[in-house]
Every structure is written in C-alpha cells, then in structure tokens.
Design brief:
Elements: H1 11-23, E1 29-32, E2 44-47, H2 57-65, E3 72-75, E4 80-82, H3 88-99, E5 104-108, H4 112-115, H5 117-120, E6 124-127, E7 132-135, E8 149-152, H6 153-158, H7 166-171, E9 181-186, E10 193-195, H8 219-232
Parallel strand pairs: 1-2, 5-9
Antiparallel strand pairs: 3-8, 4-10, 5-8, 6-7, 7-9
C-alpha cells in the first residue's frame, strides 16, 4: 500500500476500518516516506526515503519491488476505507484461481468490475453460482489500473516504467491486446470501500459511502474517520 507524506496519517482510517470488518490478520506493508504518527499495530512500514512528490512515484516504489520476489501481491489504496465485511473466503478463492492459471495476471478485488461491466464485457470466465468471474476486454482502457487488486508480480514488473506518476501509470495503453487475463467479479467482492480523496487532495463528497454499492459506514466509524481526516488536512 503506497502512500506519501501528505496522506501518511490517513492510513489510520484505512487500518481502523479494515480491522473492524475482518481484516485484522491481513499482512499489510505500507510503502511511504515519513512513518505515520499512529500505532500501526501489525502493519509494517517501509520508508522509501524523501518524498519528492508524485512524479517520483515509480522510481520510489522500485526501491521495494526490485527485490520483491513473491509470486503475487495485493496493491491497495491508502485513502480507502472499508464499509462492509471483507469477504475473506472469496479472497482465498481468488488466490486459488490466479495460482491455477498462469494466463491470469490480475484480479480486481472490489465491486468496480460491476460498475465497469462495459469494459469487462459479458465474457464469463467462470460461473461459481453465487458469483461470476468476468474478463476485462483486451481493448479496454485502464488494463494497468492501480485499483485494489491481486497482481501477478511478473506482470507488474513487465510493465514497470520509471519516471511516471500513478495517473500516468494507469493511462498507458501498452497492455492492450497482450493476451493476459484480467478478471473481476460480479455477485461478490472482497473489498467494498469509500474513497476519501480525489486527485489533487480534494475531499470526496460522501466518502463514507461505497463507490459502487451504496453501503455506508456506521455513524461511530464515520466520526472516527472524520477526526482522522481533520488531523490529516
């Protein structure tokens, strides 16, 4: 989970909601610069040096990924809050699915695939009854999206590029028609979330609602996260 000095303390809201909704045992590593000022508990923190701004994004995270040799990892967003129970059983199924087919290079773990059904198309990769795996179209934009998802590390490194910021990373079209299978789910999703900040640091309206399902944080959690936001901005 990459972060920057500006957002480092919003990680507290992310961790608080993930822990509450069943993710307290997840192995989370935060890649940042200055360490957040709250108790991170089991979460790990790795400093990438001095924060020089978003244009140093790819150069900085390479300091971690150049020696990273796990076959898979989940890329997460620092300014996201869980709004519903994490579906750990589905996450386990996703892990088995990507391990079972080397053509699968990424799986979206949120309900974004449902909203972006046009990009994913109506191609069903596998029907599991209560949910379906669907396939992102080969010609779709944002095949390199940094949205919450499981990445095959070799695929992430294949398209690694220096001297770009996160938005430039996502806008690249070099992964179009590469034959890789990028999956999402309809019917179930691992992580339902609200998004606190937009590009440029703008506070999102209704951040306490899910971007895709309309679910809302309970008021006690809204109050906690609101106080974190006030400390951050």
């Amino acid at each position: 989970m990459p972060t920057c000095d500006k957002y480092r303390n919003i990680i507290e809201a992310n961790k608080y909601t993930m822990d509450k909704f069943g993710g307290s045992d997840l192995d989370v590593t935060v890649l940042g610069y200055r360490k957040p000022e709250f108790d991170m508990g089991k979460w790990k923190f790795i400093s990438l040096g001095v924060d020089t701004g978003p244009n140093g994004y790819s150069n900085d995270i390479w300091k971690f990924f150049k020696d990273f040799d796990d076959e898979f990892f989940i890329y997460g967003g620092d300014d996201c809050v869980a709004v519903d129970t994490l579906d750990l059983n589905l996450l386990e199924d996703m892990e088995k699915t990507i391990k079972g087919n080397d053509k699968i290079t990424k799986i979206c773990v949120t309900s974004a695939a449902k909203k972006n059904y046009g990009n994913y198309g109506y191609d069903i990769f596998e029907d599991r009854g209560d949910f379906k795996y669907i396939v992102l179209a080969q010609h779709a934009e944002y095949r390199l999206s940094l949205h919450y998802g499981i990445w095959r590390t070799s695929y992430f490194k294949k398209y690694f590029q220096f001297n770009i910021n996160p938005w430039q990373w996502e806008l690249r079209s070099i992964a179009k028609n590469d034959g890789a299978l990028i999956l999402g789910t309809v019917g179930r999703h691992f992580f339902d979330f609200g998004h606190i900040f937009r590009q440029g640091g703008r506070l999102t309206n209704n951040w306490h609602f899910s971007e895709y399902t309309g679910k809302q944080l309970p008021m006690e959690d809204i109050n906690f996260v609101t106080n974190v936001i006030r400390k951050t901005i």
